[in-house]
Amino acid sequence: MKTIQELKLAFIGVSHWHVPLYYQAVRREGLTVVAVSDHNEELAKRDAKAFGCTAYTDATQLLNQEHPDFVFAFAPHYEMPELALSLIARRIPFAIEKPLGINADDVETVMHAAEEANVFCAIPFVWRYSSLVQDFKNRVRPDEIVHMAFKFVAGPPSRYLATSPWMLKTELAGGGCMTNLGVHFLDLAMYLTECTDAQVLSGCYQRQTEYDIECYATSLLRLGTGASLVLETGYAYPMEVTQRDNRWNIVTKTGYYTLEQDYFEERVYGEKTIRRVMSTDSDVYYPIFVRETLRQYLNGEKPKAGLKDMLAVRRVLDEMNQKG
Question: Phi and psi dihedrals of 256, rounded to 5?
């Protein structure tokens, strides 16, 4: 059996802002990149030079000439289904960024095609790869969770103008900050409670900017277990030191758990309060995602998050966007 270092990897859509986080795993694990592609020829050539591989401006040409063993796929949201279907048609295993399209129909189409062709596909819901989340899930049963609140603010939206202006148009991106940021925490809530559905009770999306997306959004949901969920996301600032504002509160029948900047605190009834100093930056989990995804593929395992998980999240997100 091949090792992950022996797999011929390709990266499609390297102008995407997440790609540098994936490249950390390439360097750390000694992975083999045989080709990269992007519509921006200058960026493609820059990355190809770094890895000593071939640059393409056309993804189809890359796939036809290089025949990679595994692809990490990135694209504007409205182009994602077509890219995914082209990989599935060639029986190439891949990982693709969320949200995999504009709506749930896009995701469902890709999921059915992948199932029929038996093609591996992983989705980078990277908080699932956090030891903090895994430890919490091992210790707290889903039915113990009463309420969750997640706040994640990153900005400003103008940062997308340089390489991804399509992110600022709803018809091309499918939504704004909730679509881009909220999906991670909607998945996290559903993962911790082991739910595949949620009822959207209310929402308020702020679109009071020059961009055709919501730049601040809140939603209130009830998960299948009965637990309540509040999501708050935004493109609201740059800050001088911290890149993002990431805060969690999870209420259980006997405990209260808080994540703030650089610490996680556990207050469980009858026990001593535990406060852990830790990084609360999700970027550190992308290299882990790359390594573990390749390992899962080679071992014939299912990805930790796959197309069914993406579809469950996307269905709820569509309803959130309608009510926002």
Answer: -140, 120
